[in-house]
Amino acid sequence: MRRGHFPLSNFPAWCILNNVTLDGVGVADVDGRGLGLVAEDDVDNENDDLPSLLTIPKELVLSASAIESYAKENKDFRQLLDVAGHQSHRGDVLLFLLTQLVMSSPDYTGGVGASTAWTQYFKLLPSQVPVPTLWSESELSLLRGTSLEPAVSAKLGALEREFTRIREVTKNLPRWNELLEVDEAVGLNDWILLDALYRSRSLALPKSGESMVPCLDLVNHSNPATAYFEETPGDDVVLIAFKGTKVSKQSELTINYGHDKSAAEMMFSYGFIDPASTAKSIVLPVESMDDDPLAKAKLHVFGSAPTLKITDSDTGIPQWNAPFVDLMCLNHEDGLNFRVLQDADGSQYLRMFWQDSDVTEEAENMGNIIKGHGLCQVFRLRVVAVVHGMVQQQLEALTTYDEGSVSNESGTPHTLGAISRLRRVERDLLERLSENIGKEKDQLLEDGSVTAYLAAMNGPQQGDIDDDDFA
Predict the structure, then answer these.
(1) What's 377-417 look like in SS3?
(2) Of 438, 441, 407, residue with least CA distance to 424
(3) Band of the pLDDT at 181, cuts 50, 70, 90?
(4) Is pLDDT of 466 > 70?
(5) Helices marked H in 216-338 — which ranges?
(6) Beta partners for 240?
(7) What Cα–Cα distance (Å) separates residue 69 from each residue in 31, 66, 412, 459?
(8) What are phi and psi of 294, to 5 degrees?
(9) Cβ within 8 Å of residue 22, ≥6 positions away
(10) pLDDT tens track for 364-407
(11) What is the DSSP-derived secondary structure letter of residue 62?
(12) Could you give the angle at which helices 263-270 and 188-201 cross, rounded to 10 degrees?
């Protein structure tokens, strides 16, 4: 849908009209970074006694309570929220943004509610966000072998399913059906953009939770940052310069989007990687074993998408966590069972048992539960072998598509640079983990309980053991 236009010259008037206070700062185009907050005079907070640089009243904060309040005031939005919302806070916010997209468009002819301060402000938000979900096919191909490849693919699939569902459930809302189904004035690309805007601009407020805050979302990232935000006792949101901060006139004021976010997280949410960040982690999806007859039951009880998370440490030895793999590597012969139980009212439910003890609620803690078992080292070896195989497979996929190919592909210098940095970070982490986990596997293969177990099961010599015994 065509976007409305909001000249930056009108922004000060919008702030006055909506009680937004800017003290010694203004919004301006920042070279290569879009809009940003700049100092109109020198900022020197040496004694930590400067007033707030920016104050946004609570009425403008787009939080969960704000969505509910707007729905009470706007019956058209309430109807949309009732049929398509209440799935998640994020989904409700996106429906609100969808409403603002429609009402702020020059093509809008009325019919979906009254405008708000956000309707005008929405016109100021960018129509292009450099996150991977909005990349071209050629740019997406550069993610091959990285942890973002499956993550972005899954996200795009989820967004398409969300939008398809919205079109289906709004068929009985004439105006929305006309926009989404008949005229197709609003399409999937619009929904993907709204998700990108939310993902790249939402903030975790101490009291209001995940929210979008107009004006504050114009402040760019740096590490270290020169300012921070907080909520006042009255729930207004303020931007404050750090003690000791000195920012010269016409220079940019910044916040930190998250010092603990990995390279992949930063690129996924914001479209760039902070070169100064020391946070390194990788999250990979875990797939069940094809020949496991208990696979569906394990996934059902586990209750969430299984992942392998790899995190760097101060020692230089990466740590990893894969709770579903602990469960995945246990079988009926080991003492794992599932039973369908029935309540007095006839309803049935699935329960998981380990050694005849109900452990349904502890599916993510099986690694600790099995520690007292006589074959715990055998179970550990199975897990280590699976994870080692995943790491080697990911490393092979990453190195197959080398950086030489990346540099020769089409894409913006910004995108190519970020992808190259991501590939270097992930390759380094995977290589170090592969070496370390390989050593652990070798040590486990020499454990007495492991060799005794294999001798009892198959009778092979230790030298005959290979990864397939534990895959």
Answers:
(1) HHHHHHHHHHHHHHHHHHHHHHHHCCHHHHHHCCCCHHHHH
(2) 407
(3) confident
(4) no
(5) 263-270, 295-302, 323-328
(6) 228
(7) 38, 5, 42, 70
(8) -100, 10
(9) 12, 15, 53, 54, 215
(10) 999 999 998 999 999 999 999 999 999 999 999 998 886 556 65
(11) B
(12) 130
- CA quadruple 15, 20, 24, 26: dihedral positive or negative? negative
**For residues 196 and 457, what is the distance between their CA atoms, to the nearest angstrom?**
53
Residue 402 is encoded by which pair of tokens? Answer: 């080398």
Q: Which residue in the block uniquely carries the two structure tokens 């540099």? A: 407
Cα 215 from Cα 37, distance rounded (Å): 9
Question: Which tokens belong to 186?
Answer: 């609003």
- What sign does the dihedral 153-154-155-157 (CA atoms) show? positive
Structure tokens, 42: 């020198």
Work out the number of other CB atoms within 10 angstroms of the CB of residue 101: 26
Amino acid residing at 216: L
> Residue 427: which residues within 8 A CB-CB, separation 6 or more?
395, 398, 399
